[in-house]
Specification:
- The termini are far apart.
- The protein has two helices and 13 strands.
- A hairpin with a 2-residue loop joins strand 5 and strand 6.
- The protein has 188 residues and is mostly beta strands.
Length: 188
């Protein structure tokens, strides 16, 4: 048998460091090293198109109970005003983007320690190479604690295709996946 010669270029392309650089050059989204929850969504446009983006919420541990600066959507920060609200375009997994509004708030559920709440509301969606389309309101809500240990206490959406997925090692409680019609919330 003859030894197989591999060029240095081919070896470099096969290395994980080069793969990450190729990913960055192509605009793909790297996996999260932080605790994270992913929402596989099914969003129907008013024109009848069906999109299947994935929204990922990444959390960084904090010594503050409510620390919006440590929360990211697919690695993107969520800038907020003094009332905890923000809006803008967010890039999702698989080259989708959405026009969104979001709100952070502290919540104190009965008999529980204080936790953080994030509500995202999407009102339009687009995909690279296609135009933006208006959608019926897609609402995503998650509650979590950012202090040690970081834990997701709930995750739900009215546009969830199937159950939320948690990154390896992410702590979470058993969760429902539908919004209740009586669920109280602030208008964003």
């Amino acid at each position: 048998m003859r030894p197989l010669n591999i060029s240095l270029c081919a070896a470099a392309l096969a290395s994980s460091a080069s793969a990450f650089n190729i990913c960055a050059a192509l605009g793909c989204i790297p996996p999260s090293d932080s605790p994270a929850v992913s929402f596989p969504l099914e969003i129907k446009t008013k024109g009848g198109e069906i999109y299947h983006p994935i929204l990922r919420i990444d959390l960084e541990e904090s010594n503050l109970v409510c620390d919006p600066s440590g929360v990211r959507v697919v690695g993107q920060p969520l800038p907020i005003d003094d009332k905890g609200r923000g809006m803008g375009h967010l890039r999702l997994i698989d080259n989708y983007w959405v026009n969104a509004k979001w709100e952070f708030s502290c919540a104190s559920p009965k008999d529980s320690s204080t936790e953080h709440k994030l509500v995202l509301v999407f009102n339009s969606i687009g995909k690279e190479g296609f135009s933006e389309e208006t959608i019926p309101e897609a609402r995503i809500e998650t509650r979590f604690r950012q202090t040690e240990p970081v834990v997701f206490t709930s995750a739900k959406s009215n546009a969830l295709a199937y159950g939320p997925n948690y990154s390896h090692g992410t702590l979470h409680y058993a969760l429902g996946n539908e919004l209740s019609m009586t669920d109280s919330h602030h208008d964003l």
